[in-house]
Amino acid sequence: MEVNEVKVSRPGLAEWMRLRLNDGQRFLVLCVAAGLLCGLAAVLFHLAIHHLFEAVWDFAAGSEPGEFVAVMLAAPTLGGLIAGLGVKYLAPDAAGSGIPQTKAAYYNHGGKISSRSGFWRFVLGALYVGLGNSLGREGPTVHICTSISSRIGRWAFRDASRVQAMAPVGMAAGIAAAFNAPLSALTFVFEELLDNFSMKALGGMVLAVVIAAAVSRSILGEEPVIAARIAEDYPTSWWMLVALPMGLFAGLIGHGFVKGVLNLRVAVRRFSRLPVWLRPAIGGFGCGVFGLLGYEITAALGDARNSVFSIGYDSLEAAFTDRLSLQVIAVLLVLKFAAVVVNYGTGGSGGLFAPTLFLGGLLGALLGAGFSALHHLGEWVPSFPGDAKVIGGCVLLGMGAMFAAVVRCPFTSLIIIFEMTGNYSLILPLMAGNVIAWQLAKRWQPVSIYNALLLQDGINLRRLPAYRGAQDYRNLPVETIMTRDAFALDAEETVAAAISRIREANAFYHGYPVLSAEGRLAGVITYHELRENAGNRQVVDLLDGQDLLVVRVDTSIHDAANRMIDRDFQQVPVVEADVPDRLVGWLTLNDIARQQNAVEL
What we know:
There is one protein chain. This protein is mostly helical and 601 residues long. The protein folds into 3 domains: 14-220, Clc chloride channel, CATH 1.10.3080; 238-462, Clc chloride channel; 466-600, CBS-domain (Roll). It has helices at residues 13-20, 23-61, 65-89, 99-108, 115-130, 138-156, 160-179, 182-193, 199-220, 243-270, 279-300, 313-320, 326-345, 353-372, 388-406, 410-421, 427-444, 449-456, 470-475, 495-505, 527-532, 557-567, 589-600; strands at 489-490, 511-515, 521-526, 551-552, 571-575, 583-588. The strands form 2 sheets. Strands 1-2-3 form a 3-stranded mixed β-sheet.
């Protein structure tokens, strides 16, 4: 008598964890694993960029002058070409910094970022920045690490909310490892990604941050990414009032930086004859030109600097110890600004954290050195202490103020300087400068840069955390809450055909925009008007004599609401600011009411 053996399959690791650990325990274990893997990925990304750029620079520096110029023009151009082709054909979300993509994934896709996206973000980002382009590594590190934590969450959890909860874990671990600044990693996630403070979220994030930072420190050393330790305290002194003009100038330059990036992105996209994959290469060539200018001019000034290329933290550390002249600081500040705007605006793969800190630090050094040079104006001008310690303090104040102006995370901008210095004594002037820069930037550009980038990519902010406060409600433009994919009717189609299309698409709305054959806005028609005039008449015939109301994308929600109520309109088309008949969205009173209710909660 034969006995058939029954093979009992052993459960996989994920199933074993489900059987042995409860949901909360499993989440914490996976946060530890995410911290370990994210820390390793962040360190590898850092080393890949650093060693690739060092190899490129050493090769160029050992060549003849003509070859040197050719190499330093070709390297960032090649990096841009590779990034452009990769974004076009392999990973569409590998362009830019990665933080907007992380936010969109968290709120619109349940925190899911594919491993493929993370892999190509690593490869393209390392090549783009490592070959000399002037963007940072911190934003891409966030995207890479969130893809890792997302993969872990999808492997271990069936609950969609738990999968989503792994995204901020990866984001925090990425920032902690990239900056070696664990506290600011936590505050950044709450300020930029999450709309509420959750102790449940905090526990897992703390574990991941601790592990990731420990991995980074074990491999790269104990120092933060920028060596700015302060051994002695700064006693309170009148020179700290430099924080007030620092905040003003950081707000101005930060606003110009944000507008430059956003406006160049729009201009490049409108130039449709230029292939998408070629645009980052053109930006790379521009970076090469600016980088070579910076190197040649600073060499003529007696202090050759290659910091316009790649990340450039070495010059920031030199500014902190007062080893840069006023002229060199000014040259690097201007050319780095231009290179970053060109690189990001043309679709490069890299972040904005490092350039923001670089520009802020050089602004602080410029103001500190400038004020210390005023001693010759007479006794009525108080002598500004020009020693290295004070100049270093100004560098730190500038870094914090610029971060607050560009990234718009005021608590993170305070804590990250504290973690870099290991010193609390600059907190008062830092708070003053940061708040001034932050408030000015908010007033001039109500939508922060990462949210503005999402808007440019057609992602509606209604799905992201609600903006809080009456001031935000009055100032935010309608593009933050409008519908971008409005169901439009063709002006030349018959009313019967329009009604048939509406029924087939199940797109029953109160009103519809009507577009001409050239895609221009011809008017607005309601479904009731279509039903009353059903037949073979063209839709455009029903628009004769229409008093059309439109709002521009930059019109504030408050002003749009008042205009719609005054005219008793329930919906209006939204058009480009500079092209009044180009439809970009659709705004209803329901959209406005939803936003107002969020403000009043």
